[in-house]
Amino acid sequence: MTAAVSVRGLRYVFGETVAVDGIDLDVAPGEIFGLLGPNGAGKTTTIRAVTTLLPVPRDTVSVFGLDVGRRKMAVRRLIGYVPQLLSADGALTGRENVSLFARLYDVPRRERVARVDEAIAAMGLTEAAQRQASTYSGGMIRRLELAQALVSSPQLLILDEPTIGLDPVARAGVWERITQVRRETGMTVLVTTHYMDEAEHSCDRVALMHRGRIGVVGTPADLIESIGGGSLDDVFRAYAEGDWDDETKGFRNVRQTRRTASRLG
Ligand SMILES: Nc1ncnc2c1ncn2[C@@H]1O[C@H](COP(=O)(O)OP(=O)(O)OP(=O)(O)O)[C@@H](O)[C@H]1O
């Protein structure tokens, strides 16, 4: 089966800073895949490479089998992207914002009205659609941005910290909509977050990223089991506290350390 996203040996350097340090990653079609890690881990740089917004060498990143280094425009047609910075225009109504994206993405004119309505409804914004976006709450703005990204019916939805800065209720609302869209459309979702608890509940698989590298990949349940129980936060802490530059500190060692720690109380 062709991976939705495949990354091989991706490295990205800004001046002296190694933002991404030779990572491999595979996202399966239809899964919600979380790229987790603290600020500066390299998550945004990784997904900007996947979205074609950063230049990448050939044969390092592909989306549904299309090489990002060679087929930029074709890849863009498969992707919906919600960046970290707000992209909705407060002076326009919710509906106008989504319609604007439908035109930008070149959604066929005869399908536009229906597709805009669908995207707005999928994000629970039908009643608010005629209001100016400047009157929306933070959670509604995020859902509006999701509707903008969904209007082109992408095969791959890429979300950079979709719940950052939102209160717990709004965060839950955003995740509820993301999981619902995936359930109804089978769309693949690649999401970055540093909220481990959210990823634990909503992602099928996660990759833990730290200092430009990916430490472990797996289902939240398997990763938690691998350290003998706890939460995804504990898993991350177990890895982040180890020296990731030291090749000898593998999964087994972390597990051993945890076991020892729990024996010692
Ligand atoms: N345009 C840039 N110029 C210089 N350095 C950059 C640039 N973009 C990112 N970096 C650096 O690369 C590293 C990785 O940043 P990146 O934004 O990918 O991390 P992140 O995990 O997404 O963190 P955050 O959640 O804070 O965005 C950081 O040290 C950051 O300062």
UniProtKB/TrEMBL annotation:
Keywords: Antibiotic resistance, ATP-binding, Nucleotide-binding, Transport. SMART domains: AAA. The keyword Nucleotide-binding applies. It is found in: Cell membrane. One of its GO terms (biological process) is response to antibiotic. InterPro entries: AAA+_ATPase, ABC_transporter-like_ATP-bd, ABC_transporter-like_CS, ABC_transporter_ATP-binding, P-loop_NTPase. GO terms for cellular component: plasma membrane. GO terms for molecular function: ATP binding; ATP hydrolysis activity. Coiled coil: none annotated. It is a peripheral membrane protein. Residues 5-236 form the ABC transporter domain. Belongs to the ABC transporter superfamily. This is ABC transporter ATP-binding protein. It comes from Phytohabitans rumicis.
